[in-house]
Amino acid sequence: DVELDIVEQEPRYKPKDINALCRTTHFTRSELQQLYRRFKDRCPTGVVTEAVFKDMYFQMFPKGASSSQYAHYVFSNLDKENTGVISFTDLIGLLSRLYRGSLHERLRWVFTLYDLNGDGCITRQEMTSVVQAVYDLMGKHTDTPVDETTVEHKVEALFTMLDTNRDGVITLDEFMEACSQDNTMVHNMDTILNPL
Question: Which positions carry the signal peptide feature in this UniProt record (predicted)?
Answer without folding.
Answer: none
